[in-house]
Design goal:
- The chain is an alpha/beta fold.
- It has two domains: about 60 residues, DNA polymerase, domain 1; about 300 residues, Aldolase class I (TIM Barrel).
- Helices cover about 35% and strands about 20% of the residues.
- The strands form three sheets. Strands 3, 4, 5, 6, 9, 10, 11, 12, 13, 14 and 15 form an eleven-stranded mixed beta sheet that branches. A two-stranded parallel sheet has the order 1-2.
- α10 links the parallel β12 and β13.
- α1 packs across α2.
- The protein is elongated and about 70 Å long.
Length: about 375
């Protein structure tokens, strides 16, 4: 029986060089050629990689492949946002979203099938957790989006047809899939991969403190933190991981990350929930936490989903909240909702988790929940 072919998609440069040397007896420059074909040109067929020797291409075809997830459906929003449902295996699906702007194109990718964090205001969290995505499945979302966006543009080419920013803000908690997320980000940053600046790759976490410290030693990207509350009592309710890593511990890890990576600031995401976390006193408490720190606040109008008990804060409440923060010397902006008509907005991604292992951190941070969440 033939050995299973190795998927080259997502292999960091060092691993790809080792693969072509050990399995094919080729020199490192062959790996660099492969990376350019796979990422720069979006080619998955070895036979089409014409500057590779014919015998090398033939040998590659016997032991390797470039396998990407399958697109099940695509939806397009009136505002230009595009959402793809991707098949990960026989029953599991995840969602990936492309958000065009006049000067940029942002791809929001997923890191897990479902999510174990159990944030009460998030649609993804309500469907349970199944598994981590592999490196190939994470990078494959970017590869597919590049392919789909490469067709004839129906408007301005800049922002409507190219990816300038990647954000790990889709389904799942990226730091709970640390061992696969970091190699994928290294491909995004590699000049032979997608060659993105570290400020254009953003990892969003709900607050896995040990992994933030680990990330500070291993990978330099922009950090975003789902905060959503200015005190532990409220955040315990909204973001259950706070019961294990309270706000003071989380913020200390964030400041360490910025110092270690010589970063500009941490972006704190704050979903605005009517009558829950949007009061003037909440804004003043938040200002106390952030004043004088390398931080900026991204205020996100809540995006409803079926069965939720929460309501979006009024525009007046959101503006008042922002103004209080700004008046206290804290940079705060309001995120414009995109893709709401196709359920592609923040907190709305649901994918398809048919074979689920329902894990609720909100019930109790016991051993099974810690394992699913990647918490030691």
């Amino acid at each position: 029986m033939c050995a299973e072919r190795v998927n080259l998609l997502g292999l960091p440069r060092v691993q790809l060089e080792a693969f072509v040397a050990d399995r094919l007896g080729a020199k490192p420059f062959r790996a660099r050629q492969l990376m350019k074909w796979i990422y720069r040109r979006g080619v998955a067929d070895f036979a089409a990689m014409t500057d590779l020797a014919r015998d090398f291409r033939a040998a590659l075809g016997e032991v390797a492949e470039v396998a990407v997830p399958e697109i099940v459906t695509e939806q397009r929003s009136a505002d230009g946002t595009r959402k793809w449902l991707l098949r990960m295996d026989r029953v599991q699906g995840i969602e990936t979203v492309y958000i065009p702007e006049p000067d940029r194109g942002t791809l929001c990718i997923s890191s897990q099938v479902g999510c174990a964090m159990d944030c009460s205001f998030c649609s993804t969290a309500q469907q349970g957790f199944n598994r981590n995505l592999s490196v190939a499945e994470i990078v494959g979302q970017v590869w597919l989006a590049h392919r789909e966006l490469a067709g004839p543009a129906d408007g301005e080419r800049v922002g409507s047809g190219r990816i300038t920013n990647i954000v790990l803000m889709g389904m799942g908690e990226p730091l709970a899939n640390y061992r696969n997320v970091v190699p994928a980000m290294n491909v995004f940053l590699d000049d032979l991969g997608y060659d993105l600046s570290r400020r254009r790759v953003t990892l969003s976490t709900s607050g896995l403190v040990p992994q933030i410290h680990k990330l500070a030693e291993e990978c330099n990207v922009a950090l975003a933190v789902s905060l959503h509350a200015p005190n532990d009592a409220l955040r315990d309710e909204l973001v259950p991981i706070n019961r294990k890593h309270p706000i003071a511990e989380l913020l200390a890890a964030c400041w360490h990350y910025i110092e270690r990576q010589n970063g500009r600031s941490v972006t704190f995401e704050y979903v605005m929930l009517d009558g829950i976390n949007d009061g003037a006193e909440h804004a003043r408490q938040l200002a106390q936490l952030m004043r004088g720190r390398p931080a900026k606040l991204n205020l996100i109008p809540f995006n409803p989903f079926p069965g939720t008990r929460y309501r979006r804060s009024s525009d007046t409440a959101i503006l008042r909240f922002r103004d209080i923060l700004n008046d206290h010397g804290v940079i705060a902006t309001i995120r414009r909702t995109r893709g709401g008509d196709i359920d592609a907005a923040c907190g709305q991604l649901a994918g398809r988790v048919d074979d689920r292992t329902v894990v609720r951190l909100g019930d109790r941070l016991g051993a099974p929940a810690r394992a699913a969440a990647g918490v030691a």
